[in-house]
Records
---
Amino acid sequence: MDLSMTDFSFFGSYMSLSYKKDISDETGYLCLKSLHGISKSRMESLKIVPVYKGLPETDWTVTTSYVSISLQSEHGSIEITFSEPDRFLLKGKGRDYGILIDTSPIYNFEYSYLLGTEDMPFCIVNSYKNLSRYLIYTPEGELRLDQQIQIDTSGSCKASDNHSAITVKSGSDGVFLAVIEDIPTHSLLPDRTMPDFQSVLSENNEKFSAFVNAFPSPLAPYKEMLAPAAYVLWSATVNAQGNLCFPAVYASTNMFPGVWSWDHCFMAAALNKGHHELAFQQMAVIFSHQDQFGQIPGSVSDSTIRWNFCKPPVHGYILLRMIQDNNFTDSELHQIYEWISRQTDYYLKYKDSDGDGICEYWHGNDSGQDNSTVFAGQVPVESPDLTAYLIKNMELLQDLAKRLGNFKAECLWKEKAEKLTEEFLDVFIEDGIPTAREAFTKKPIHSRSLMPFLSLILGKRLPEDIRSKMLAILKKDFLTEWGLATEAPKSPLYQEDSYWRGAVWAPVTMLFYEALKDCGEHSLARKIAEQFCTMVSKYGFFENFSAKTGRGLRDKPFSWTAAVFLYLSGRRCLIFDHHIK
């Protein structure tokens, strides 16, 4: 595992480690990052560097497995692993060998406390820059705090050039054991009765192997990517804390410490076959904050809830697939019915401001495809994909009502779905294909974005001539060597790396994969799935990818990319498609 590409973390932890280089002198260091949501703008907490005779080592190598990091130099070695989600251990060997922990203070009141006794000291790091706190101590070895503080007598919170560093070095036996523990809401005392380091490593290997092996086995070309993909989800999962009522798979450990309210659907879909409870929790972690009107927040973390946007209601379509793939309890089905019925009612009542029966996106961020060219002109926008999602919500509710023996509700949602389908065909079809329009003027938006084509999820609800034309345009204008571009590559607004104006994205790939199968287009569905899995196998789990070269773009690694890879590479229906080829 490349630590400069994939952060090292542990299932449930709010800490991650990555390898970075200092811009000024290219010196390498381990960076401890805070994964608490409030840290999003400044995640780096500590810098960790091997030292020999008190001086930083410049010539050392780092190797990483899924459960440990090893640092090696001429003078000694250090091995790192988690003993608990909120605690990791650094075991070092070598005479006069140790680590320097630079707390990198920014504000004038941000420094470390030296506590305990002279023979058993410990430190608490007050990392105010990301509102995190860490307990650091040494069950074996020596600890020293080196700190220079300039107190601002005015009591302001201005930045300062304070210095605060903790040095840990080996004892007389040439060994040290350092502990770094995340203490976000309270202070703790050191627990010096540490478990055996090798036993911890062995247990961690067993836990990770069990997590990986629970996923369906991928098709032969992608087997080697199973563990790396599973690790992205494993390492991005944080424990229930603060606003998170359940364990949650974060969008990434690099730039997006939180759960966004359509990202979580794709994590749930990937986890559903081997980790059903965790999959259901990915839905619950957002819907547990559903308000009295039925809206769900745009994103949630342990420390933040954002209501400014609400993301597309893709939930019913994904849950339909999940319920087909696995057995849900009656209790779970009742809960899903409550969530989706309230969400659907919310859209119908509050997101149709002009009362014409067609719901609106008020901003690009509400669509999930933030800067799609559909939003290049006037907003709000009435886009075919939004109405399609709501129809699929209604199909799910009809199915759930039938499963739960509620005939009246089954008929109600069936009728609503049929009525909204008629309205869809009446207002959105322009030149034979679904076309977005401005909400106020009702003028069609002649964008070359892929977004309106997501209404293909309606499958056989769309007349055959409309489906045929949509499919022809998809193949001609959007399908590239690497999958479906989110803006037609020949569009004047296409940009290779401009988010939703051209890149290939995991969630869109998965939605089209399922939509194409619903339309009976198994060959094309298989093709885009294989293109995506091949691209990810070559370039990694980036946030998105160039439609022209396949190279990874933006954040690394990204959870929904790994999730969609797991979903597509291990699908029974994909295997079935190979049989009917």
---
Amino acid sequence: MKAAIVLIVIFLRTLMGVAQPCTYVRGTITDAETRERLPGANIRLQADWRTGTSTDSLGHFIIKAQAGDTLVASFIGYKESAFIIRKCEIIILLEPYAQLTGEVVVKAERLIAEEFRTMKADKLDIYTNPTAKADPLLAVNAMPAATTLDESANISLRGSTAQETGIFLNNVPIYDGIRYGQLNGIGTFSIFNTAIINNVQVFPGNPPLEYGNTSSGLIALQTDAIIPKKTETQLSLNMASVGFSTQIPVKQKSSISVFGNHQFSGLLRGLNPRSLERIKNFGSQDLGLHYFYRFSPTTSLKFFNYSLREQFTFDFRQPYFHGDFNEQGKRNFSTLSLQKRVGKGEFSINQGASFSESRFSYSVSDIKLRNTNFFTSFNYLYTGNRFDFKTGISHDNRLQKFNGTLPEIDFAIAPIHPFFNISSTTRIAITEVFGYGKYRFSEKIMIGAGMRQNIPARMQPLYNSLQANVKWQMTEKFSLLLGAGKYHRTDFSRGAGNATLFFETDQLSLDATYKTLRWEVIGSVFGKHSRQDHQLIETVGAEAFIKYQSRKWLAQISVSSLQSTIQQNEISFASPFDLSYFGRANLQYKFGGNWVVSAFSLFRQGSFFRPVAGAQFNPLWMVYEPRFVPVTGQQRLPAYFNMSMNVSKLISLSDTLMMVFFASADNLTNNPNVRDYNYNFDYTTRTEERFAQRTVFLGCVLNF
């Protein structure tokens, strides 16, 4: 009788486990033979490739799914596995490919300091973000640490300039990774296509020292390292572009991804004549190729090449000139990453080559800018049971040629005013060695520390970057992350001439994270001490982020507060990033028939600017010369507010054919957000220069 009762109880519990409703599934992916956890493994829904994620440093994952769904797990060197979900917490065992005795399979390349990041976005996060416009860098702008003051893909993190943010693709630095770039380097979109991006990891402070030449924040992008079982293709059509992407498996050892886009302006400008009245036209053509090859269970290679041609014209206004500003650009860059696993060690070679040419013209100014970049790095990673260590050497060689015609004074640029010719060549060559190690005292406490040292060349100063991190996983849901370090960056000046800029930054940050299946709460405090040529910048700030997600609802809000001052020539004044509040809110709802409605808003205090206090007529130049208030008398622009909405509908036409229609409206309330002021010829009247007005956007995507 007792045995029968026990069997009934076990049977009922089994039924309860099978029938248990799930909104999210939590699990661990491990090696079927060694039971070693597999960080960086991919997990996705079989019915929808866009719903997926990857495991963290301990092999854990959380995915939006329910009982009855089929999940597909994959990892480099292991056999792909598909299985049906039976309960809300699972363990996935992956079997390694057949191998020689004693041979260890190569694992997905990952950052040694991955545990010390605070934010990460995968493909699904980027596609479903209403403000990202399917752009990986614009998706970063929705994160709490982003403090970008314009509506661009030039990402500022925690009150530092965008020029201090390092951007890497497959461990190769990408400089000026933007499209439709202006003379000041600001661009509207990034050059990265989400179709081939596996994930985006963001280090808003204390960038990992395995990457060099970055002083304040880092964005690391990794391309896909999977081989699909069948060809997957995506076609897209919207009011400003038509594009395609396809991923093709080749003999179970490699895959080829190709994508291309053609952008045009007529339809978008026609539907939004008032909001885009300053934009005369724009257009671009780009083509990308990504190749992944697995030579053996221990060796893999990734190659990526991207080419772009673009042009745009907008209405340029200045007190003594009103006319067209034209830009034409060409860009090509390639990355090559080779990875070899030997025992507990892993060797990697990363190479990059980039060529770009831009031409800017307005009034009688005609400027040509050419950039050439070559990068090579050799790294070795040792992975032990408790101790990991990574070391390597890198060489970054950059060349910039600047020539053209410029006005002699920046406030008199009409054709009748004097201009001069300029031609310069600037080279930056940086060779650095680094070592970084981390030790796991237990699954709860981890410490990392490292140093990066340059090998001086061409009158370059000797410097070294230092870093230390501590992560304490106090409970399964709550963790603390403490980071500190000193960092350096050398970059080209964005003005005329052959100048370079040198950044040196000391940072200290503390991040607390609480995470469950539905809730995520992050609180951060940080401080920075930056030196940029003759400026000293002090920044302290705090961030708060709350996220709630269920099967139908997604809600998140973040608020940052920054106090930032600049000291120059013994004068102290507020920086543009001195903001009492900088907030974001996002609300998304899914309802019957695969409809999704989302709203996103961004609100912040207006940044500082220097108004004109008066003007004096200059008979030599025949112009009025403006006199600005001193930096200590700066004023704030009006507060910024932008709300955008997006509505999408997923239509399943067959088991393999899906279509997504979407409609969005940016700046839905048509708020007059001021980015600057323009003046008349004698500076007695000023008018507002505004960010984008209400813009409506429509499109569809076909997946098969």
